[in-house]
Fold this protein.
Amino acid sequence: MRILDISMPVHEGMMTYRNNPEKRPRFQQFRRFAEGGVNESGIAMNLHSGTHLDAPLHMLDGGGTIDGIDPARLLTRCRVVDLTAVRGKVRRADLEPLTLAAGTFVLLKTANSYSDDDSDATVTLAADGAECLAERGVAGVGIDALGIERGQPGHETHRTLFEAGILVLEGLRLADVAEGEYTLVALPLAIRGAEAAPVRAILIDD
Amino acid sequence: MRILDISMPVHEGMMTYRNNPEKRPRFQQFRRFAEGGVNESGIAMNLHSGTHLDAPLHMLDGGGTIDGIDPARLLTRCRVVDLTAVRGKVRRADLEPLTLAAGTFVLLKTANSYSDDDSDATVTLAADGAECLAERGVAGVGIDALGIERGQPGHETHRTLFEAGILVLEGLRLADVAEGEYTLVALPLAIRGAEAAPVRAILIDD
């Protein structure tokens, strides 16, 4: 059993959405070893920084929260598809040639996995790409971008996915992962009432 | 495949170590749905609040950090043992009758799982209990207390476990889990250089 870590390490200098420094995690040291033999610290972070799972509440008024998502849905077979040749947005035309059975959790591997910069060149999922995945009945979609969409004021990509009950996993790192089938483990912290939560995501290559 | 969630939900009113309100997570809302169709929030939390994994750095000067722990060690067979009759501390005498093979990840189910109060009555692991687990060569130990020890100025329990390379998983909720064997999934957030990290922990009853 080979495990592939597909999570972003969490640290103060990590890449953030639109390189916004306010979205960087901050750390606080409460106790130091020299003062009693204990190191104890805390973190403050935006729930959408680093590898994280969105819940429908992120973009749907009154939508479902992260703690309402069945953990079994994040412990599942998945399919990594290589879209590293795509520039800009992953569109319907990029997804239609793929054989994606209903219930598949699909991870979109793009050029983003080879970049530590979040910019307007970051590859995202177009609204018509989201529609295509909804039509196929996929169970979830993961992407190696901190946001699965960008610059769409109506948030059509997120809304289409959430309205179809599709899970949205963001901030993956897939550079070392070949196209193929794996078991995905990506359980979100059980934050009550939240619209997202950080995740340690791995793939099992079995 | 039946999944048992053994994590504490994370929320502002959650139980904390010694009921210290400073150890409660705090939430911040950055964007609200009414102001642009997006809910976006953040969390500030002590890394030892809720269900979490300790790294050796917590109690060993220069010890290993949470991001240095191989994820494969937190995706493993485990054994839940029923110690709900124990009061005070789990001692060597409580553990010696158990058949614990080397390499076992053992979860100690105590009366704590039936209480939402953290107090001096909270059951912890005695230093001689930790010595017993080290002698058996267990791979990890989990407990349904926010701290596996209490009131030991030299932190002998943690130190004995860390010096033996034993993982320490705290803040489990085991009320609904029967004694027996399971698969444990408890991957910590990959926080660089940290002495602990929150975990969403589940058991798979297969």
